Amino acid sequence: MSDVPLIVVENLVVDYGSGARRHRAVDDVSFEIAEGETLGLLGESGSGKSTIGRAILGLVPATSGRIFFRGTELTALSARGRRAFGSHIRAVFQDPNSTLNPVRRIGATLLEGIPRSDAARTGRMLSLLSRMGLPAGTEDNFPAAFSGGQRQRIAIARAMMSQPSLVVCDEPVTALDVSVQAQVLNLLREVQSNTGLGYLFIGHDIEVVRYMSERIAVLEKGRLVECGPADDVVRNPSQPYTQQLVAAMLATAHPGVGRAESLSSLHGVG
Ligand SMILES: Nc1ncnc2c1ncn2[C@@H]1O[C@H](COP(=O)(O)OP(=O)(O)OP(=O)(O)O)[C@@H](O)[C@H]1O
User: Fold this and answer.
1) Which among 200, 197, 198, 146 is positioned nearest to 176, based on CA atoms?
2) Distance CA 20, CA 24 (A)
3) Can you tell me the ipTM of this complex?
4) Does the beta carbon of 47 lie inside 6 Å of ligand 1?
5) Which fold has domain 1-88+200-270?
6) Predicted local confidence at residue 255, as pLDDT
7) How confident is the model at residue 175 (pLDDT cuts 50, 70, 90)?
8) Residue 50 alpha carbon to ligand 1 centre in Å
9) What's the Cα-to-Cα distance from 2 to each of 6, 34, 47, 120, rounded to whole Å?
10) What mean pLDDT comes out for the span 69-89?
């Protein structure tokens, strides 16, 4: 395996607005993600997690700092040059409806942007839908025919269609019933073990982020205050802010017995 990291984020700063209305959402953040690794991003609401994900996806510009994908500086590319990397870096967002067009059949949505010259695309689509546990014929239906959990699995299949190397998962199970959260998380893990892709896994639920991540980075008001192996960050946080955050998150981490039980039974989290 190459020594070049999959993603390097170097001194990233992202401001929204300008002049007196300027607001610094991400302040001098640096981290790396290795090939096949999952880095979890934890932090309170408004700490800048989604903005980091959006900067990696090229959806918001970096005010300063650099982002590299396998050694290529994405932040130095034109919009056109950047688009060429779009198939390598994909996203799964909290709300699958943001990526599924309600008046488009699932099959057409999944094939969108995949070149016709890719002879395997239809086979890949059918195999992904089946791997996501969706019924035969899903591709001929519209999003309204499916439950929230099924729609999120379709959104994951869509993200995987271009065989990306990195997927930014921004709160991918937050909107789902606790009973289907573990199923969706396990599908994400299964795809990773089959393909070797890396994840930036954004979340505010500490159990979910720990379940998914090898390392966890903690953000406080746009600044990265701690980054280390997931169990160390959760069990022995070295920074006072992380200690407080983890204690507060653990105190509210069991919203539903079903989800907590299913996560721990699947992975031995305890
Ligand atoms: N489009 C925008 N314009 C202006 N400010 C924004 C915009 N998007 C986010 N912000 C602000 O930037 C800061 C970081 O927001 P961001 O959504 O990245 O945080 P987050 O940690 O992902 O929060 P949450 O967990 O609530 O999604 C917040 O103060 C937010 O209000």
Assistant:
1) 146
2) 12
3) 0.97
4) yes
5) Rossmann fold (3.40.50)
6) 53
7) confident
8) 7
9) 9, 9, 32, 27
10) 93
- The reported pLDDT for the residue numbered 178 is 84
Any ligand 1 atom below 6 A from CB of 168: no
Domain extents in the chain: 1-88+200-270
| Contact indicator for 138, 106 with CB cutoff of 8 Å | yes
Check pocket membership of 48 for ligand 1, CB cut-off 6 A.
yes
**pLDDT surpassing 80 at residue 270:** no
Cβ pair 65, 241 in contact under 8 A = no
Pairing mode, strands 166-170 and 89-92: parallel
Nearest CA to ligand 1 atom 4: 16
Average of per-residue pLDDT across 245-253:
83
Specify the ligand 1 atom closest to the Cα of 23. 5
> Which atom belonging to ligand 1 lies closest to the Cα atom of 60?
1
Instruction: Enter the tokens of residue 200.
Output: 């930036």
Distances (CA, A) of 223 to 31, 240, 257: 12, 14, 33
pLDDT tens digits for range 34-63: 999 999 999 999 999 999 999 999 999 999
The phi and psi torsions of 170 (rounded to 5 degrees) equal: -100, 95
Q: How far apart are CA 194 and CA 56, in angstroms?
A: 23
Q: Which DSSP category does 35 fall into?
A: T
Q: Would you say the CB of residue 94 lies under 6 angstroms from ligand 1? A: no
Indicate whether 204 pLDDT > 80.
Answer: yes
End-to-end CA distance of the chain: 32
123: CA distance to ligand 1 center in Å? 39
Pocket test for ligand 1, best of 12, 21, 23 (most atoms within 8 A of CB): 23
In angstroms, the CA 84 to CA 196 distance is 21
